[in-house]
Specification:
- With about 450 residues, this protein is of the alpha/beta class.
- Helix content is about 30%, strand content about 25%.
- It is built from 14 helices and 23 strands.
- β1 and β2 form a beta hairpin.
- The chain is globular and about 70 Å long.
Amino acid sequence: MLAFFDMAKEKSVYSCQACGYQSPKWMGKCPDCQGWNTLVEEKKIEKSEILETRTFHEEGRSPTPITALIAQKTPRISTKIKEFDRVLGGGLVDGSLVLVGGDPGIGKSTLVLQAFDSIAKQNTPVLYVSGEESLEQTKLRADRLKAGNEYLYLLSETLLEKVIQEVKKLKPKVLAIDSVQTLYTSELESAPGSIGQVREVVARLLYLAKREKIATVIVGHVTKEGAIAGPRVLEHMVDTVLYFEGDGGKSYRILRAVKNRFGSTNEIGVFEMNEKGLEGVENPSELFLSERPLNVPGSVVSTSVEGTRPLLIEVQALVTPTTLALPRRTTMGVDHNRVSLLVAVLEKRADLALYNHDIYVNVVGGLKIQEPGIDMGVMVAVASSFLNKAVEPKALFLGEVGLTGEIRAVHHVEIRAQEAERLGFKYCYLPKSNLKKLKAKGSMEFIGLSTVDELIRTLF
């Protein structure tokens, strides 16, 4: 009877595999995300089971006045890969938890293994845990990358408790988990990769990293929607979130920081994939403009600032008459709604009859640009293609455009212009408000503009 009573106390909860919603009973449709058949039964963990593992510090720690604390500059562990260190803010911080996400085959494991090999060469013990490959497979990949050092330890394991046990024995300075979806804890009955497993694994790794002062890098797969597979809460739990982006048909990749508690957000690092693995690109602007056609209608150079780095980008537009009732508006690398807005401004303020034309806009190189500083470049590219007139190939266009046709100021004009001047550009079209405040002009010729109509009349 007693044994039966103990079994009856076992509790379970149903968790949605799409959004993390929990319910005491099964439902066909999740009331939170409206997904069908996404609720899976999982064991409910009692507080007594997790109290020991979910603590940052030893027992007896009491609240401390902030005035009694002495701020200490946390030393960073350099990966010796400049582009990786740039995105991290200078290197890995002791006790930090870094989440690296990206499409399958994009190069996440390659980058992490290269970085860990560089750290191991500094006589720093590191542990690389692979749940997707055997030790022999990982060794083959390391040989291809020419990575090998006695301080680089490999472990092929998927059970979290075993990983924690080995970490406490080895006491590495840096830990990598590749990937977090393959790791599971025996405390939960759900399958590895499920919402409950991923959330619990990351929580345990978080507390392990903070208690033992271990810089931890976890690799996560990305879903078709572009989000880290697992609940969105993962991004709130970790200290840094990095996304690895790139076009599968091209050799270069972009590592983007979307969250960083120890450095700048929206910082990017540019890598090129070759037979030696991933190599940092110190001059990405020159790379993105290397195959740019000159004196061709629809090709314009604009600039974007990603974190602290100015990037010169080529914006291409193709405008053709349509036979459809609703003309196409296709974009790659820029926001679709933003381009539709700029086309409407061109029609209204510059008298360009674009309503019966298909319009295609592309940012060359697979880049995804969010800032409005390239608005003028997009508009000039569309107008150039529509009028079939090429613009000056050594001209740079930067500025935000409003609905009334005004050209608004952008930030960091000096560093944008310096980057363009270094690559041989001679003219810079920019907002008049920026021109008035510009201090160091260099040898470039700056042309200030205030409206879209003035821009089109000046160029064409």
